[in-house]
Amino acid sequence: MSMENCRNQKGMTLMELVVATAILAILASAVLPLSQGAVRRSRELELRRNLRILRSAIDDYKMDFDRAVEEKKIIPSLTETGYPKSLEVLVEGKDWKGLYPYKRKYLRRIPKDPFDEYGEGWGLRSYREDPESTIYGGEDVYDLYSQSIKTALDGTLYKDW
């Protein structure tokens, strides 16, 4: 083969191949942190949504309790606060003795904490506990929180949401 034929052939040199690979590696390293941030942001949105769903169900349960007492459908004991005894009550439902013609259910299932890495579930607080308490007394479920010790993208702790 003559030298003229070698020069006319199309292709990439080794140097061009190395430069192209280096450029692709730089672009990939820039995109990776962005995708990790997007995954974390979506998990944060899921946590906010799940907390809102659960807290709304607890509030609905309390409103039904108050309404059933007001309409004299049930007679509460002195120690009853009107909040559910557990999160499972929100799924199983409650018969309000004629307030509804059926056993009212507040949730189809209990949403999971997306930041629960160890299977601890939600942290719970009862009505009589301090709002910042992390020790659950077990009387009722007044509030709940994530037990994750991680920091959110906005700098707050997930457990404080």
UniProtKB/TrEMBL annotation:
<protein>
    <submittedName>
        <fullName>Type II secretion system pseudopilin PulG</fullName>
    </submittedName>
</protein>
<dbReference type="GO" id="GO:0015627">
    <property type="term" value="C:type II protein secretion system complex"/>
</dbReference>
<dbReference type="Pfam" id="PF07963">
    <property type="entry name" value="N_methyl"/>
</dbReference>
<dbReference type="InterPro" id="IPR000983">
    <property type="entry name" value="Bac_GSPG_pilin"/>
</dbReference>
<dbReference type="GO" id="GO:0015628">
    <property type="term" value="P:protein secretion by the type II secretion system"/>
</dbReference>
<dbReference type="InterPro" id="IPR045584">
    <property type="entry name" value="Pilin-like"/>
</dbReference>
<dbReference type="InterPro" id="IPR012902">
    <property type="entry name" value="N_methyl_site"/>
</dbReference>
<keyword id="KW-0488">Methylation</keyword>
